[in-house]
Amino acid sequence: EVQLLESGGGLVQPGGSLRLSCAASGFAFSINDMSWVRQALGKGLEWVSAITNSGGSTYYSDSVKGRFTISRDNSKNTLYLQMNSLRAEDTAVYYCARSSGALDSWGQGTLVTVSS
Amino acid sequence: DIQMTQSPSTLSASVGDRVTITCRASQSINIWLAWYQQKPGKAPKLLIFKASSLESGVPSRFSGSGSGTEFTLTISSLQPDDFATYYCQQYNSYSRTFGQGTKVEIK
């Protein structure tokens, strides 16, 4: 069974940093592209970032480009999202998802709150 | 970036109704479109990929169609478990934009 378990969310002040992790199990992590998607409370889904299976290519939405960094450790079956210079508008539930083109498996999400 | 526009934003329907949701892309995305269902407090669930391919385990009352810039998700006979919010998403490019969502409510 595919499992994705996010962690690392919490309360952070504006301008601060946070690193999210997504532990994967039940599938061959190293051959799958992965993505991060976020959802502000009561709002729609927003794609944030993606990384290819080898980690060789990364992609970002305009709203996070230059502030967030996606990475992965295939030896640990773990996906990361380093978030710097956080803003109030980054407050959301962050989901990691496996990508087979479409996002076919999702974690349960981790809440990031940016507030003073 | 490719923009995705869903309509309607909210839909009121009854059990047994046929329901259709439309998604339009700002430029051609071929068939690289997915549909997701999301219930409150839960992660989204993939329903349809490549515009019309049904994800394993998804009931056959769900179907997708379209190509290029216009797509539809149809629920042939709405069931109580189907009241949820539905999103389209393009994956023609790595900037994988979502539509704004369509909430299907009980009439």
General description of the model:
The model of chain A has no long low-confidence stretch (mean pLDDT 97). In chain A, strands 2, 4, 5, 6, 9, 10 and 11 form a 7-stranded mixed β-sheet that branches. Chain A is an all-beta fold and 116 residues long. In chain A, 0% of the residues lie in helices and 55% in strands. Chain A has no helices and 11 strands. Chain B is mostly beta strands and 107 residues long. Chain B is built from no helices and 10 strands. In chain B, the strands form 2 sheets. In chain B, strands 2-10-9-4-5-6 form a 6-stranded mixed β-sheet, with no helix packed on it. Chain B is globular, with a radius of gyration of 13 Å. The N and C termini of chain B lie far apart (36 Å). The model of chain B has no long low-confidence stretch (mean pLDDT 96). Chains A and B meet through strand 5, strand 9 and strand 10 of A and strand 4 and strand 5 of B.
What distinguishing features does this structure have?
heterodimer, A: 116 residues, mainly beta, seven-stranded mixed sheet, four-stranded antiparallel sheet, 11 strands, B: 107 residues, six-stranded mixed sheet
